[in-house]
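Sample 1 of the test manifest.
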Amino acid sequence: MKLKKGIPVIDQGDKLGFWGGKFGGNFVPETLKKPIEDLEILFNKLKKDKKFINERDKYFKNWVGSPTRFIKLENLTEHVGGAQIWSKVVSDANGGAHKIYNATVHCLLAKRSGKKVICGDTGAGYAGKMLSMAAKKFGLKCKIFMGVKDIQRQQPNVRAMKKNGAEVIPVYSGSQTLVDAVSECMRYWVANCDKVAMCVGSTVGPAVFVRICGWSTSQISRELKTQLVDEFGSIPKKLKLYNCVGGGSSSFGFWNEFMDYDKKQCEFIGVEAGGPAKSKKHAAPLTYGSKIGILHGAAQYVNQNTDGQIEETESISAGLDYPGISPLHCFLKDTKRARYIAASDEEALNAYKLVTKFEKLKPSLEPSHAFSVAIAEAKRFSEDTIVVVNSCGDAYKDRAIIERRLGKKYV
Amino acid sequence: MSNLISYAFKKAKSEKRPALLTYTVAGDSSKKQSLEILKSISKKVDILEIGVPHNTPVADGSQIQTSSYRAIKNGIKVNDIFKIVKDFKKFDKYKPVILMGYYNMIFQYGENKFLRKCKISGVNGLIVVDLPWPENKKFASKCKKKSIFFIQLLSPTTTKNRLKNIIKDSHEMIYFISMLSTTGGKLKVSSKEILFNYDKIKKINPKKNVVIGFGITEKTIKSLKKADGLVVGSAICREITNSLKKRQNPVTNVYNVVNRLKNKIK
């Protein structure tokens, strides 16, 4: 299995949509074959269309708010000692997280295809919130599927979705989290694909959704590349990019433009959710060596039992609480381009404490996982090493959890 | 290639009626009871579809989901399902059995091992909901080598070109999904429209046995009588759920539903 240079990773899949011959694909009911093919044709055409790209860039700039900041965390760097710690503050984006990129592109595609309704899944509520914002912006009706457990723990985002006019549909099946929300959303699409567009909230699902999402979030690394050159005159010789990985959309977008650099120069570190320290459950299929299986239309490493039933996950962060992982990350792992490691709930909370103590930055629980590993490793690196953490979400949505776990003063 | 499924269609045709196919989930509500249900409905049904329950089913509506979760909760494993088929076949050797499920279950078991077990336990056909054409080509030909029908699915969204290709690669039985829906949805198109699409498929190759499924209940079954076969699934799963709620015997209640269905297409 080999990563090719000079070809975007999203386009390195084979005819049937498999990366490295075995990750991804289209394991979907027959009914979805046609709508998926239609979307593929549309996307392949538009991603080469200058007018469409200009339109995307216009919305990214004027509405999403690009570029998001790239800042040095001076105090944290000093406290930790070792590498310079920087952050790409993607939570600056309109709505407070990277999910806005994918949501915007899906709404633009839905408009082009003449669909008037868009449906989507959400875990932490960010994908849903952003889709509801984008749908409102582009005049589309919006339906969001969300597990009941997530609705309870991510209320601020639920309120935001409703305020934007979206219908939030509670999902009661299974573990009542993201995995079930995605299933229910796909089922809804199966029944309504003639009139409704679907947005999958991360780089997961049938191949075309993986590609669209990766193409959209790559805005993050496009910005970062320019910002690095502005700051250092060129791409630093020792660059380490830390990002949390749930489905894998923010991390893929954070890394994409640096894919062709030697990994000795630009190293990618993906941080999965290890779950509570005392629990056996986790949401870290790459770190803990889960087997390949099929989930939501794609072959990927996924937490499952020997029979092939998908296993329940556990994580303090709703956005990382997913048993599978993007086929793109499976591919990056097996080609050894990226390295994956897990952080526990407790480690993420400690990192949140440390970052908020030293900096004017409130990363949500998802990027707090990435901060945890970045801080631990930065100590060992030399001063000329540039550690960048993607702060891809804002902690506003996690207030209730943070207050419960750490006390009021951290909110 | 010919197997018990072909005979079942021949027999129904000789009686000038569509074949009746039922779908029940293996292990719903228990291993023992699901076997009892199969035994009790066997003489009224031409082909038995047995669901392999999966916990992330992307094409099933709430009725089949409920049945599947119940079966999984009660501990059903793939090996138990083969045992149920084997035990059933001891009871009624000539009744064709089709396993229906999602690909991950087969993938984890190993394709070859899964097919060997199918053969040993007496499975006659397979429906894999999320392994569409052309992705299923290799697996379908493995099935053929073992004289097990791989049943291709067609939907109202299947394009004309695709229809032709899939039918060409199909074995003797084809499953036509009546409408855009998950299983158990309310029939939202007219039977006339469904039969119009059905005819399009039959015209391409009249020799294939085409069954219609999704949205078929006691109310709708008669209007689709013209088809080679009709599948009822969610209505039966719902009956099991309701029986459990009312503390009645699902075996008798399911038998009664199936009996009424059969009478409507005689």
